[in-house]
Amino acid sequence: MPRLRGVFYGEGEERRLRAAFGDGPVRLWKWWWERRHRLADWFLAVCAFPWNALFTLAPGGDLIRALTAPLLAVDMPSPLQFAVLGTQALALALALVLPVAVSLTLLVRRTRPNWLMSTALVLLLFFGNPVPCMLGLYSYASWFTDRRRLALWSALMVAAVAGTSLVSQNGIAVTFLFLVMGVALPLTLGLWVGTRRQLIGNLRERAERLEREQHLLADRAINAERTRIAREMHDVVAHRVSMMVLRAGGLEVNAPDERTAEAAGLIRTTGRKALGELREILGVLRESTDGPGEAPTAPQPVLSDLARLVGEWRSAGMGVELVTGGRPRPLPAQAERTAFRVVQEALTNAGRHAPGAGVQVRVDYGERDLEVAVSNEPRPPRAPGAPEPPRGGGYGLAGLRERIVLAEGTLTAGPYPDGGWQVRAVLPLTGDG
């Protein structure tokens, strides 16, 4: 038979509750929420037992007693009187057993509602007990959507009330009150609760669907932005770097002396490596929109590539010292990539703003965090006629701060009293690799 869908808390609400109250209260609330219906059934079964026993044993409204009372009022042979007394004793035994049966059917009222309704009909017809009828009509109306069967059970309950009132010779007012309190009121309340539960379930489902659609729209916007960035980088940066590599290659071939050719070759090699890294970045940006396989990407640089990076700067004339502390081990990919980019940007800044100064790169592997520090000595005096170092706009450090924030770390950068400079990043470790 059709049944109303239950209402549950979604994942988004659970995350908000954990953020507001912590993990312990949320686990307790989740445990109660998942078992609330079963606990309510047990509570209702225990509380309904004394009321069922009271109404079943109460005088007046007992159909068996009403049928056997005239027989006891007249003189009849002893065997017949014993039979009547036996019938009343059986009725008394049933009056004690049936409340237990009602409590048991209350435990399965959401899965076997017909058991509760049948027991309620028997108690109402033969004992005049309205409590199971009220609970059964309310449960059926609030949890199930089969209105035809609900109407049939309601008609049977009304007929039972009418039959019991006719045999017990109850007045019209008593019968009307019995119908209103025992049938109409629980039926109306159950229909209202069931409709409200169904409405809340539909609203919650609609809210969850809208939330999923918002996430999909956000993902589409992110993918579109990544594609746009990849296109801009390809059209602007890649074109300019390609021109630089081509001109450096031409200068290397037509250089008037060996020193110029060596410098042009270094420029050409560096430019080609920059193009390779740019293609990797473009592949990462297009991977989510073009699908895997259409934009192959090389592995992103990690801490094991620091020796190669330091070697490249040493070959360019920078005095770089690499120091490692702690216990080197594989770390989460995001932490290693971020640490590599910090060292790369700090070495680039040192090469631009303090050419000729010694640089130290220190990597400390902690148990809970990774610390990366790049410090350079004061800039040597500039030789007469040498070009002034370029002034940076601060975009490199701004980009590093964004990377560190995404990795939930901290970044500090500033000068030493003697004129040197240090860039230091601390990245938390959430796993072992």
How would you summarize the topology of this molecule?
Blueprint: H1 11-21, H2 23-57, H3 63-73, H4 78-106, H5 113-127, H6 131-143, H7 147-168, H8 172-253, H9 258-290, H10 306-315, E1 320-326, H11 333-353, E2 359-365, E3 369-376, H12 395-406, E4 410-415, E5 421-428
Parallel strand pairs: 1-2
Antiparallel strand pairs: 2-3, 3-5, 4-5
Organism: Haloactinospora alba
Pfam family, one: HATPase_c
Catalytic activity: ATP + protein L-histidine = ADP + protein N-phospho-L-histidine
**Proportion in β-strands:** 5-15%
Biggest sheet details: 5 strands, mixed
Helix content percent band: 55-70%
Strand line-up across the major sheet: 1-2-3-5-4
Number of helices, where a helix is a run of at least 4 consecutive DSSP H or I residues: 12
> What class, by secondary structure content?
alpha+beta
The rough form would be described as rod-shaped
Strand runs, count? 5
Q: Taking all residues together, what is the mean pLDDT?
A: 77
Rg, Å, rounded: 42 Å
Flag low-confidence runs.
Answer: 1-9, 59-64, 291-297
Q: Cα distance, first to last residue?
A: 52 Å
State the order of secondary-structure elements, H for helix, E for strand. HHHHHHHHHHEHEEHEE
Organism: Haloactinospora alba
Enzyme class: transferase
Keywords: ATP-binding, Coiled coil, Kinase, Membrane, Nucleotide-binding, Phosphoprotein, Transferase, Transmembrane, Transmembrane helix, Two-component regulatory system
GO cellular component, one term: membrane
